[in-house]
Amino acid sequence: MATLDHSLSAELETGGPSFSFEFFPPKDDAGEQQLWATISELEPLNPTFVSVTYGAGGSTRERTVRITGRIAESTTLLPVGHLTVVEQSRADLEHVLKQYEAAGVRHVLALRGDPQGGLGQPWRPHPEGLDHAVELVEMARDAGGFCVGVAAFPEGHPEAEDLDTDARVLASKAEAGAEFAVTQLFFRVEDYFALVERARFHGCDIPVLPGIMPITSLGQVTRMAQMCGSELPAEVLARLEPVADDPEAVRNVGIEIATELCDNLLSGGAPGLHFYTLNRSKATREIYANLRATP
């Protein structure tokens, strides 16, 4: 059984570097078998927590809640359930929080979520719902007993007026009760530390975990970066493009790039690393082993 009687934020602030893993709810039984195999392979690494994402418009809500609850019930892992406001009323959101609570899940990541149709589309709140992530933070906080995390954006949220405005939004979420943050994927270490500095300037001192996506396919990471509004930097492409026709070489260089990024983040004082696993464990385990082998 997972240990659920402590606050994750306290561990992030006082423990050693945190390692955490993110999964997404699979669409079918075969995908679910793959997910549980991945969880079994990563569990021995004793991550600080794992999280399960929440589909656009709540499209995977029931599966997300069920998988997150099963992690709490049948593994040693601490689960963090995702929750977004997209296409959901206040009553819907309150119901999901009650489902998490009943399943023994006491940590949630409160997100606004992308507009219907993806980035670039206009944001339209549910007529009986919430408009901003900060409101969801307040709702989860007021529900009692939840440790609430939020998203952060090293390159700025795509809809933010500028980087300073983006940092002020993160600070407002912390003021509303958020206890930790996890960043969107990024590839430049300086983008992460600049975000932390901006947030600190606005009085936000919660732990900010850098989100890492191992590059195992050039096409895949390019699509993911575009979907998230992140940049795939020229210096990263310069290392990948010469081997673009060799999938194994791309994967090896990608692991190298991620290991260097993670090492520089930890050396610079990041409180930990949050890996976007895409429900596969091998690349994450390799990076983890590389970091452990670093003197």
Describe the model.
The chain has 295 residues and is an alpha/beta fold. It has one domain (8-290): TIM Barrel, CATH 3.20.20.220. It contains 11 helices and 8 strands. The protein has helices spanning 8-14, 29-42, 61-74, 90-102, 133-143, 163-175, 189-201, 218-228, 234-240, 247-267, 282-293; strands at residues 18-23, 49-52, 79-84, 107-111, 147-152, 180-185, 208-212, 272-276. The chain has an 8-stranded parallel β-barrel with strand order 1-2-3-4-5-6-7-8, surrounded by 7 helices. Strand 6, helix 7 and strand 7 form a beta-alpha-beta unit. The longest helix is centred in the C-terminal third of the chain and has 21 residues, at 247-267.
What is the structure about, briefly put?
The chain has helices at 8-14, 29-42, 61-74, 90-102, 133-143, 163-175, 189-201, 218-228, 234-240, 247-267, 282-293; strands at 18-23, 49-52, 79-84, 107-111, 147-152, 180-185, 208-212, 272-276. By secondary structure, the protein is of the alpha/beta class. Strand 1 (18-23), helix 2 and strand 2 form a beta-alpha-beta unit.
